[in-house]
Amino acid sequence: MMDSTSAVVEFKVNYEQTKHLDAGEAVHSDAFPAGGHMWRINYYPRGNRGIEEANDGSHVSIFVELLSKSRSAVRATFEALLIGKGGEPSLNLARRIGVHVFHTGNRKLGWPQFLRQTDLAKVYLEEGHITFVCAVMVLRRNPIPTPCSDIVKHLGNLLDRGDGSDVSFVVDGETFHAHRAVLAARSPVFSAELLGPMTEAAMPSITLHDITPAAFRAMLRFMYTDVFPGDDELGESPSEMVQHLLAAADRYALDRLKLMCAQKLWENVSVDTVVDALACADMYSCLELKSRCIGFVVEEKNFKKVVLTEGFLNLWQKFPSTIAEVRERVGT
């Protein structure tokens, strides 16, 4: 979701399971909010029944539907495009943009002849799926300008100043002041520790082990601002810092931070770094990162180089099940 008036959704459809549906049968996305209303995407693999130009079944249809009941008409734009092989969006053949006034008698907008089925399979089928990216933006009449949210700035300042802090953490001799309510709201682990019956709930100062001050500082700032550290904040060894931050995110059940760390490790994967990233993925249950790293390792151009690294030998000793997965992928 982009803001209160618009939303962008990725809609992935299993091609084999849906290509034989009858004309008029739709596959629906999950409902999503935009502009104070709920919407969904309807995809018709053999066209939308009742629309004459789509009845021959040669084209797929795509529509957006207003699910919410509204006393007044809702004016909105709808854009739909397909992601091609290789992950590139279609900017011409499979892209449509329209404006519509949604009301009780007409709650859908879309294109009955969005794309020929033959082109769909030939150009946009990737690993058995087709992927739509759809955007809905509700158009307001003469809106009163409002400033962007500055809650991130205010919470960041609250952390920096320490105003009203009611708990502190000692990490390797360094003290960090924080607010129980903020930490509990962000992390179920902190919620149990700081607000529940655990011993830490009554302690004004808590000593932490198995985490570095730099990683705890970065995690704490993320919990207040929801912002991932910039490259200049990751220190002289960014990859190592991200690994420490991933461990902290896993420890405190910060799923969004954990995925952001996984993405950062994946962005910097190479023959020299993939083994460390794979070990982290295995240790902290990052399944998507693990799958992508294994895919990187088994590529013909990488495999012989990776298996000769010292890190791969260590991986063999510490994570034999992961090595078994690598061997299985090589054999397929």
Strand content: 15-25%
- Specify the CATH architecture of the largest domain: Sandwich
Number of domains: 3
As residue ranges, the low-confidence spans are none
CATH top level assignment of the largest domain: Mainly Beta
**Termini gap:** 38 Å
Properties at a glance:
Potassium Channel Kv1.1, Chain A, Apoptosis, Tumor Necrosis Factor Receptor Associated Protein 2, Chain A, five-stranded antiparallel beta sheet, alpha+beta, four-stranded antiparallel beta sheet, 3 domains, 13 helices, BPM1-6, 332 residues, Serine Threonine Protein Phosphatase 5, Tetratricopeptide repeat, 39% helix, flat
Protein model, in words:
- Residues 165-232 form the BTB domain.
- This is BTB domain-containing protein.
- Residues 8-136 form the MATH domain.
- Belongs to the Tdpoz family.
- With 332 residues, the chain is of the alpha+beta class.
- It folds into three domains: 6-138, Sandwich (Apoptosis, Tumor Necrosis Factor Receptor Associated Protein 2, Chain A); 147-253, 2-Layer Sandwich (Potassium Channel Kv1.1, Chain A), CATH 3.30.710; 269-332, Alpha Horseshoe (Serine Threonine Protein Phosphatase 5, Tetratricopeptide repeat), CATH 1.25.40.420.
- It contains 13 helices and twelve strands.
- Strands 2, 3, 4, 5 and 8 form a five-stranded antiparallel β-sheet that branches. A four-stranded antiparallel β-sheet has the order 1-9-6-7.
- Helix 4 packs antiparallel against helix 5 (188-195), helix 6 packs across helix 7 and helix 7 runs antiparallel to helix 8.
- The longest helix is centred in the last third of the chain and has 14 residues, at 238-251.
- The chain starts with 5 loop residues before the first strand and ends with a helix.
